[in-house]
Description:
By secondary structure, chain A is an alpha/beta fold. Chain A contains 9 helices and 14 strands. Chain A has helices at 19-31, 59-66, 77-89, 104-117, 158-169, 190-199, 216-227, 261-270, 282-285; strands spanning 11-14, 35-39, 47-48, 53-56, 70-73, 94-97, 120-122, 128-131, 135-138, 147-154, 174-179, 205-211, 232-237, 274-275. Classes of the chains: A alpha/beta, B alpha+beta. At the A-B interface, helix 4 and helix 5 of A face helix 9 and helix 13 of B.
Amino acid sequence: MSILVDKNTKLIGQGITGREGLFHAERMFAYGTNLVAGVTPGKGGEWILDGKVPVFDSVKLAKEATDANATIIFVPSRFAADAMFEAADAGIELIITITEGIPVQDMMRVRNYLDQKKVRLVGPNCPGLLTPGEAKVGIIPGDIAIPGDVGVVSRSGTLTYEVLYALKELGMGVSTCVGIGGDPINGTNFIDALRLFEEDPQTKKVVLIGEIGGTDEEKAAEFISKYLSKPVAGFIAGQTAPPGKRMGHAGAIVEGGTGLAADKIKALKAAGVRVAKHPEEIPLLLR
Amino acid sequence: MKLHEYQSKLIFAEYGVPIPKGSVAATASEAKQIAEELGGRVVVKSQVLVGGRGKAGGIRLAKSPAEAEELATQILSMEIKGLPVRKVLIDEAADIQHEIYLGITNDRAARRPVMMASSEGGVDIEEVARVTPEKIIRAHIDPLLGLQGYQARDIAAGIDLPRELWRSFGKIAEGLWQAYKQSDATLAEINPLVITHDNKLVAVDGKMVLDDSALFRHPELADKRDLDIEASAEIEARKYGLSFIKLDGDIGCMVNGAGLAMTSMDVIKFFGGEPANFLDIGGGANAEKVAAAFRIILSDPNIKAILINIFGGITRGDEVARGILAAMEEVKPDVPMVVRLVGTNAEEGRKLLADAKMITADTLADAAQKAVAAAKGETK
């Protein structure tokens, strides 16, 4: 077991014929992910990955031909909202959007539409999902995690790799790693992922990696104290970040006194989360 | 990206929001000429992208064109919170009966825009929110449907606006929403929205913040960026696709990924050092990008050491190392450098760097401690 993606996930890729998308499509495929098709308007009929994966002109056509249930989106930011609307309208149940820099108002429209359609979104501006040994849906390097019982949820990319790597160094494996992304408006949030981890029998422990900006970590803390039976270790990035500055991620900003790392750490600690002083400490807190 | 008051108000006016007659001036004589054309009393307003202009003496009332000229001379020579005043807005003075607040911003938690209004205008709205939160009326806007007429009426009633003004308030609310939506703003604010003695509504002050990610849709607005509010290193960094923020410490940081870059700063602090900057070099670490990052970090004279933390992942460690070495060849930094490389081929990468006499580290904690020691002139 795992959450969101596994070996049965039938994945299509929107925008995987471009340089970046193709690079990651090759790695997902080599990992064993069930990548069944690509979608690029105007390139229908072509084949990629040495003729193993067909390309379609639309998500609808790809879905009809392959019965795919998930999509990974690499299309450029200005076309990303359209790609997500298209996937939702074609009946795809799970959308993972890697693209960074999507306009905030586009994301508000997308999120409100997907909620009405009951379609799950992971991202945007995220590294995607990794269920070690089963499916790599995104850009997380496959070799830095081994299968196991730790569920990981994070707003960051390379910081998450850092934690996965530290877990692996100590022989600790991962059930699923979920990158929820660094944008202010995203799909799946901490609470959604925590709920799935709580229900997943394979997951015995959880790692939560947050950062400054917004109040999602505080809400997660409240959820943890009420509903989570599994131990949680956490880390919050941005303790030294100055207020009013966007720290790389569109969502990582302290505004009007909210979004401070200190408040998040305090809330998590109050909920019984073991908060690490630096990321390499996380595996030790899970022992 | 922030817009100046005069720019924001001109956008509001395009969407039917009434603004005072006025024009912007870069010199005192232009200011005088504008005041003459307007006739009567005018307000001379500094155009700088900080709050508290009034308190700093950057907004003054002039009774005559000669006084407008004199005040413009004074204000144009001012610096407000470190920013030079390069332009003044000369507006017809409003005949104020009452001041209200009207604004739209993104509510992250609700994932929707929210329109906010208060009968207490002309003051800092965050202060109102803290002291008398019941005086702020809110309406969330469905991003797929837009602002509805009843929402504007509810707000008008909520702030006790006289009924005869509801219609014109509704038009202003809709205009502000359209300005916000069509410009991809993250904030559009009228503070104050003035009720004049002859019962008209006028947007006396305006403020807009635009979504940087959406500027591709608005090239005409992107050109309005005021570079005065950004450190020159931050402007330089943007040219190379680097995300850089200057801080006050002495340990320069070069990291891939925003979360890891923040964490590297935090860990430096945890081990007793002070980070000098946030710098995310993004995916890949080719020589050109690394060289630009070095130059930007080293433009700060306080730098005593540099910490490079690259989690290669898919990028190959030996390639990153070669990028760093090529960049060093070009920039020749003269401060100690601590490098931590993890990921594919990191071993080879570390060897290349160690051969070049750089301090290497295996873990982030180790790297941070070595950087802190190096900055203090200790060798570890």
